[in-house]
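#struct-pred

JT: dropping the chains for the assembly here, can someone run the whole complex?
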Amino acid sequence: MSNPIKISIENLTKVFYKKDNSVTAVKNVSLQIEEGEFVCLVGPSGCGKTTLLRILAELESPSSGSFKIMSDSGKRPLQSMVFQEKGVIPWLTVKENVAFGLNMRNLPKDFIQKQTDYYLEKVGLMNFSKLYPKEISGGMKQRISIARAFANDPEILLMDEPFAALDEQNKFILQEELLSIWSETKKTVLFITHSIDEALLLSDRIVLMSAHPGEIINEIKVPVPRPRTMEQVRANTEMAEQFIAIWNHLQQEVQKSRS
Ligand SMILES: Nc1ncnc2c1ncn2[C@@H]1O[C@H](COP(=O)(O)OP(=O)(O)OP(=O)(O)O)[C@@H](O)[C@H]1O
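RK: done, full complex below.
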């Protein structure tokens, strides 16, 4: 380990109780994520990935176990979350959406202006800043979510399949934009994806989860140095081997969950 630990999860279990039964969504998960690390969480549908992220975002509480996000200043928000969809506020303009978290914190107006403009520019939305979400495309809405999350400057960033609803072209562009902003900010990111390509492109480490109830069953350090492009990911033999290993893992877990 080269950097200090930013997120520490210890034996975390989450059980949802219903009227006459219960569902264990996450089981005994322990995970340490370093400061500035980009970690992708990959696992079959329903294995508890979103639940784990929601716990870290303090939208759910664990049934047992614990987690800690190491705060370096106490002045910044602990976490920002980017969802697959519905991340924008329809009655605010693009710019107001990006500035939303900063305005909520009553920060100085000139700081908000500077920070908002910087990230609007980064995600290519400067010329659309006065439009409302209904006037822009799905890809542009996701750009708002990403710009807002980075503008907030949280201690950690939690991303729940943020590109899953986009077409391939938009996905590639946003992945590259995300990598460019991340390489500048070196934010600690926990990112959920179903796409193995995406995990190999974006992350330092891929954490594989078992079928429901979700446990961590393997971790893969992505072998290719940055900066990476999707072309390299697809052409590189080491990446191809990792792709097949993860693919086989997912196949087995999906079959287990069905049997
Ligand atoms: N609020 C809730 N109440 C009851 N059960 C829940 C709740 N949230 C999630 N679950 C259950 O917990 C399990 C894990 O769900 P979760 O959404 O975390 O999985 P996931 O890995 O993110 O799935 P996907 O990849 O399909 O989004 C599922 O069986 C789900 O039905």
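JT: nice. The longest strand covers residues 5-17. Helices lie at 49-56, 94-104, 109-122, 138-151, 168-185, 196-202, 230-235, 237-258.
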